[in-house]
Amino acid sequence: MSMCAIIPVANLLSANTMLEAAGFGSNNFSVPAYAGPGATHAALHAWENAAFEAAVQAIPGVVVDIGSGDPVARTQALIAAQGAQWGDQAPALPTSGNALANTLYRYTDGTLWWCIQTFNRSTYNAHPSTYPALIRRVRNPRSVEPWQQPIDQYDAYRAINPFTGQPDQVTHKGETWYVTSVDGSGNNVWEPGVFGWTIVGQEPGPSETWVDTGVTIAQLIGAGVYRVSGVPTITLNQATRLGDLPAGETVFTGYWPTTGTPSDYIKISPHVTAASGAKVWKWA
Amino acid sequence: MSLTAGLFNSGLFKVGIFNGGLFKSSSTVSIVSLLFGASENGVLYDPSDFSTMFQDSAGTTPVTAVGQSVRKILDKSGNNNHAIQPTLTSAPILLQDGSGYYYLGFDGIDDCLFTGDIYFTAKSKMSLFIGVRKLTPPSAYSVIAELSDNGAQGFGLFASSNTDKNVYQLWLTGTSSTSSSSYSAPITNVISAEMDLIANTSATRINSSLEITGTHSNANEFSNRKFYLGRRANTSLPFVGWLYQVIVRDVTSSSNEITAAETYVNSKTGAY
């Protein structure tokens, strides 16, 4: 007898915290499953243990299968029943014939890819990164992998990874980074070194903080461009915040109309909404 | 099976160690002396020795019977490279097969044991000996044992390739070599691998016959790494099967040492 269980990723952090508090160790739900280009569920398999089974069954949102039979097949069935796919059981991306839409594949280098629309690999037979409109890379949320530019909320990096309880980590430019800042939705879509990432072992000193530039928002000119109340002193690509909330965090990308020539027009990326009168802060 | 007197001429094997060709309980002591007697770093995990296994990763509750989770197994090589699993669901269990051999059962889902960093800095050579049974056809890139977090460094023994579930693969510093013969699950094998990053070569034997040779050229040392059993970095590429014995040492082995180690592992595995 053994138990297979699965839980939506939204409940994952609390579930693992609950099990750890009960003395079963951390990250019991550790197997990512995908109903899209990002992990949507987490599964586990445990050999017979009555106390652990009772603890798991008490978790909100969990689906459990206690029984005998091949654990792999049972786990596979449980994941499929949630409309998800098991990353570790993903089929190889075909080298000919059709790759099917809404299917998870494993490329020859071991990376996972989510097929957005059916396409013929006999025709489109280069590396899958060649066809971002057809197929996109899927991150293993429990692995430290090379940074890739996020496209949407499915692959954005997060300050708290529900699979680990820790900030997302990536490798980039020879360093390992972890997320230290996110937007108002909890996402970080910036390149490490630009904004919101810190190199492991090189945490910023306590002197760095948000500093008032002394100017305020005067007028929205267009997406990514504001007129401000004076000429602020901000360094190109410096983290910037419009207003007092984390939702206003962005990056200063230059003055307008000429990036390197100070003026009372500032360019930011990504665009964030700020009301007139909001203070302009910089991270320094 | 009998061992001729001439097979072991190093003097390390003494009369009385073998019993009609089968190792007695004292054989582990002898193999440790042979493979680790010159202060070689590495590991030796022996699931047939209950005194080395615990049901908790702190090592306070001993394993006393088959069917119990193994969350810590002591390294018998003398190097204290013990392997643990802090998480209950990810622990393999101790089981015994129909021939009486003890093994660690890995579920192919989330089971894994791993060490802390093992000091292999400036070490360019490595030997691996392992008794393994592949169960149902594994998923792609199924990790039996790996000295790496990502496959780009160190080495890894895989129970399958990305496209062929009926092979073994040895990965060395990011380059793979695949068995030419078919090894379809369920199947039990003793696998040994000799790896040399200076010569850029590897030689892998399955059931005492040379099966895989490879060339590799991506690194000159194994460096300090964790050693994982059953899953890559405790996160992915799970292995569904049994491990009877695991030995790693940071040198290449002589032909006598290879034969002795394979014979020892097979005495705990029964592969051939």
What would the keywords be for this entry?
heterodimer; A: 284 residues; mainly beta; six-stranded antiparallel barrel; 35% strand; globular; B: 272 residues; six-stranded antiparallel β-sheet; 21 strands; disordered N terminus
| H/I helix tally of chain A | 3
From the alpha carbons, calculate the radius of gyration of chain A and give it in angstroms. 23 Å
Shape of chain A: globular
- Give the low-pLDDT segments of chain A: none
Give the topology.
The complex is a heterodimer of chains A (284) and B (272).
Chain A: E1 2-8, H1 12-21, E2 31-34, E3 39-47, H2 50-57, E4 63-67, H3 71-81, E5 85-86, E6 98-99, E7 103-106, E8 112-115, E9 119-120, E10 135-138, E11 145-146, E12 157-158, E13 169-172, E14 175-179, E15 187-188, E16 197-199, E17 210-222, E18 225-228, E19 239-242, E20 249-255, E21 265-268, E22 279-283
Parallel strand pairs in A: 11-13
Antiparallel strand pairs in A: 1-3, 1-4, 2-3, 2-5, 6-9, 7-8, 8-10, 12-15, 13-14, 14-16, 17-18, 17-22, 18-21, 19-20, 19-22, 20-21
Chain B: E1 18-19, E2 22-23, H1 27-36, E3 42-45, E4 53-54, E5 72-73, E6 83-84, E7 93-96, E8 102-107, E9 113-114, E10 118-120, E11 125-134, E12 143-147, E13 155-158, E14 169-172, E15 175-178, E16 187-196, E17 201-206, E18 209-215, E19 223-225, E20 228-229, E21 240-249, H2 255-267
Antiparallel strand pairs in B: 1-2, 3-21, 4-5, 5-6, 7-8, 8-21, 9-20, 10-19, 11-16, 11-21, 12-13, 12-20, 13-14, 14-15, 16-17, 17-18
Helix pairs in contact in B: 1-2
